[in-house]
Amino acid sequence: MRQIYINESDSGQRLDKLLKKYMPDIPLSLIYKMLRKKNIVLNSKKADGSERLCAGDNIKLWLADEFFEKSENVHKLNPIVKKQDRKVGKMYEKDMLTAKDIVYEDADIIMINKPVGVLSQKAASGDISVNELLINYLIKKGAIDEEKFRLFRPSACSRLDRNTSGLLICAKTYKAAKKMSTLIKERQLDKRYVCIVKGIVNEKKVIKGWLYKDGSNNKVKIVTAEFPDSKYIETEYTPLRSLGGMTLLEVRLITGRTHQIRAHLASIGHQIVGDNKYFSSKSNEDVQDYNTKDINTVNTKAVFKKYGFRYQLLHSYTIKMPDITGEFSYLSGRTFTAPMPEIFEKIMPLP
Predict the structure, then answer these.
(1) 89 pLDDT more than 70
(2) What is the pLDDT of residue 170?
(3) Is residue 32 part of a domain?
(4) Which of 22, 50, 325, 343 is 20 to 30 Å from 269 at the Cα level?
(5) Quick one: pLDDT band at residue 75, thresholds 50, 70, 90?
(6) Residue 27 belongs to a domain with what CATH number?
(7) Are residues 236 and 260 in the same domain?
(8) 44 in any annotated domain
């Protein structure tokens, strides 16, 4: 017989979902059968799996050892990515997050400054993403043990594109994942980005449109009227300073869609510098040198060559929390900032 004790950080989960995490190789149909036969009980009483767990609950499992053996191998708490087999990419040379990457951390959440070149979540089984680097960090820190790892796997609550840097909220506990996911889904977070775009932008503006995905090239397109399968979008941008035919913008996502900032700005002729997906070859040709005195032109290729980057200059800069009551009220109204990357300051220095 084995027992699972539910603590505060694991409360709120459905019993069947937690059991599936604990025994991922056991089909749900068999888990339900074990519940019906009272081989699995909650607080010494029969359960059907739909119960919401509370801190202090006790789950007893009268099951043969083979039910657990495969799952225990799955949940072995060893470093997930090692330097010798790391596939993170050339831009991030570590096998876990470091203190420099951490913007904020408490017992439940961790906010990181995601480096360029790192996936937020796996796209394929062999990928290494922020989630793996996060788990390695928590292992090294001694902040997670095998029992906790069986019940909840720390992970990012949202996504940034591989080559977009900046603030990313990650959850260390189930209750934090649930709360942060709700705030994101209900668009309660005030998220601001900074980016460097082609051309001179002189005024703050809100632009609107409809976004739809073009499956043939994994890009999104912006149209001015509703289109089949399109989604409404709003983007607010504010110019901060201009130099050499480029403008540093602060961008607020009023809606949050895949590639929204990149595609929406490109649709009005202000492509993000370095964005090969939405920055056409024609845009790279209609310009001169970065140091030109003509503030309306910029040679993107010259900028690439001078500063040695090949990715979009887009950075998740700040996240402001809404008014929060209850357990996470300590975060209410707080603003978190990921410092602007050095490349931004080099290309667009303060006057």
Answers:
(1) no
(2) 96
(3) yes
(4) 343
(5) very low
(6) 3.10.290.10
(7) yes
(8) yes
Domain boundary among 74, 104, 121: 74
57 is annotated as an active-site residue: no
Roughly how many angstroms between the first and final C-alpha of the chain, as a whole number? 69
- Rounded to 5 degrees, φ, ψ at 172 are -95, -15
Q: What is the pLDDT of residue 39?
A: 93
Quote the pTM value.
Answer: 0.76
**Same domain flag for 41 and 111:** no
Using 50, 70 and 90 to split pLDDT, how confident is the model at 94?
A: low
Residue 334 domain flag: no
Please state, in angstroms and rounded to a whole number, the distance separating the CA atoms of residues 67 and 60.
14
- Name the E strands within the chain: 2-5, 40-42, 58-61, 102-105, 109-114, 155-156, 165-171, 190-198, 205-214, 219-223, 231-243, 246-253, 314-320, 335-337
Of the three residues 161, 186, 211, the one that is the final residue of a domain is 186
Say if CB 244 and CB 298 are below 8 A apart. yes
172 with 92, same domain: the answer is yes
- Token duo for residue 50: 């739909």
* 255, 233 contact by CB (below 8 A): yes
**256 in a structural domain:** yes
Helix/strand/coil (H/E/C) assignment for every residue in 166-233 = EEEEEECCHHHHHHHHHHHHCCCCEEEEEEEEECCCCCCEEEEEEEEEECCCCEEEEECCCCCCCEEE
pLDDT tens profile 262-287? 999 999 999 999 888 887 544 443 33
Number of domains present in the structure of the chain: 3
Two tokens, residue 150: 């069986």
What is the span of the domain harbouring residue 206?
192-315
Catalytic residue among 10, 16, 57, 161: 161
Whether pLDDT at 70 is above 80: no
